[in-house]
Design goal:
globular; 8-stranded mixed sheet; D-Maltodextrin-Binding Protein, domain 2; alpha+beta; two-stranded antiparallel sheet; 448 residues; 48% helix
Length: 448
């Protein structure tokens, strides 16, 4: 775990650095995180004339089709520059990813390089002792982190080891269709909008168009924000239990249930029909709001084919709830026989300017300061908006919570399950809050 003060210093450094670079040039899953449960496996043909095949790396990540396509381009570039390396790839949606990884760990068949998430999943896999300590590769210079802030590097540490190299930084955001809201006479979000404003705008769009007023909310991340904006936390400070009053979760469940009853909030069967980022309701003009991570805006906007805007989550006390986070990490399997080559690939991914121009901020604001400077002059309008949003949150957010206890991934899965039971009216909000607390505290106690 890293200290909050250190990460807060990092956040200000990164956002201010990029802002200066952008100015000088004149000029980047859960909230829903992926393409559903499908898995795609590929071997990249670099097209090079090299002998190839001397080293084979397996690489796995979660994400959208856009992330997949861009990552494959970066891999092709790496293979062109390293013709002795062949990279076999697998990608899937966020939920399917963790199921697949768990099966791989159980079967002793992990990929060499894998995407890893901050918080509950880093805690879980650190506890399983299946990730390699990357500090020796940093010390040898194989992975050059000299242009990455120390605080951000600390976010990849767990159990006294460096288990992940950060790939970017992002934040929760509300993506909205400004034109759809204006056509319905609804208020456009600003820095001071509230949950009541969200509900009123959703109702106005639904009444005017007959479409939904919002996409559904991903309970884990959004309720964590909801607790923070109300001066509480999902987990308590010493990571031994929950950190909020049950009434808060009851209120959250009731809010979303009420919106579903009004027809402004889609039922779960509709949400599950639109799991892929490229198939979200806002893409098809069937809802004006979508809640997700800022690094997913590139894929969402590309799929929509029209301008979308960003706002922080609804208030009051938005700054207390909002936070910036490491977007994700690359980790290396502890049992990989190709750790040196895996480390070289990670170094290339975070430090090569050409590779980062291909990725174009899809995994969040680049972590290497020189890469950020190089990208600043050529940002498209979508990435410029994303980077400015991250910069704005540097002054309007609070330190991230890092107090995820062992078993927290199971806890968050339980939260998702009881939320579904509320939306299907199998449990009342009060019954669901009680059941979740019992399950969560039992899980945490068992995992201590």
């Amino acid at each position: 775990m890293y200290k909050r003060s250190t990460l807060w210093t990092l956040i200000m450094t990164i956002t201010l650095t990029f802002a200066l670079a952008a100015c000088s040039s004149g000029g980047n899953e859960p909230a829903n995180q992926g393409t559903g449960g499908n898995t795609t496996t590929n071997t990249v043909d670099s097209g090079s004339g090299g002998e190839g095949g001397d080293v084979t790396l397996r690489l796995m990540w979660w994400g959208s089709q856009t992330r997949h396509d861009l990552t494959m381009e970066v891999i092709k570039l790496y293979q062109e520059k390293n013709p002795n390396v062949k990279i076999e790839t697998e990608f899937t949606g966020f939920d399917g990813y963790w199921e697949k990884l768990a099966a791989m760990v159980a079967g002793n068949n992990m990929p060499d390089v894998l995407q890893m998430n901050f918080g509950e999943y880093m805690t879980q896999y650190a506890g399983k002792d299946v990730l390699a300590d990357l500090q020796p590769f940093v010390e040898s210079g194989t992975i050059d982190v000299s242009k990455i802030n120390e605080g951000l590097m600390e976010s990849g540490q767990a159990n006294g080891k460096l288990l992940g190299i950060p790939l970017g930084m992002n934040a929760l955001t509300v993506i909205y269709d400004e034109q759809m809201l204006k056509d319905a006479g609804a208020k456009v979000p600003d820095m001071n909008w509230t949950w009541d404003d969200w509900k009123a705008a959703a109702a106005a769009v639904h009444e005017k168009t007959g479409e939904y007023g919002t996409q559904g909310l991903e309970t884990g991340n959004i309720f964590e924000y909801y607790a923070r904006q109300n001066g509480q936390q999902l987990f308590n400070e010493d990571a031994t239990g929950l950190g909020y009053d049950d009434q808060l979760l009851i209120d959250y469940f009731q809010m979303t249930l009420d919106e579903q009853e009004k027809g402004t909030y889609p039922k779960l069967d509709v949400i599950m029909q639109h799991e892929a980022i490229e198939d979200q309701l806002i893409v098809h003009g069937k809802a004006p709001f979508d809640f997700r991570w800022s690094n997913q805006v590139v894929a969402l906007t590309k799929a929509a084919g029209r301008p979308l805007k960003l706002a922080p989550l609804p208030g009051p006390d938005t700054a207390k709830g909002m936070y910036l986070k490491p977007a994700m990490f690359f980790s290396i399997s502890k049992k990989s026989k190709q750790q040196e080559e895996a480390a070289k690939f990670i170094d290339f991914f975070i430090n090569d300017v050409e590779a980062n121009k291909i990725m174009n901020g899809e995994r969040g604001v680049p972590v290497n300061s020189e890469v950020r400077d190089a990208l600043a002059a050529d940002l498209d309008e979508t990435n410029k908006m994303i980077f400015e949003y991250i910069d704005m949150l540097g002054e309007h957010s609070s330190p991230i919570d890092s107090n995820f206890p062992p078993g927290s991934s199971e806890v968050l899965a339980a939260l998702k399950e009881v939320n579904e039971q509320v939306m299907y009216k199998q449990l009342t909000p009060a019954e669901a809050a009680k059941e979740f607390r019992e399950r969560a505290e039992s899980t945490i106690k068992r995992a201590q």
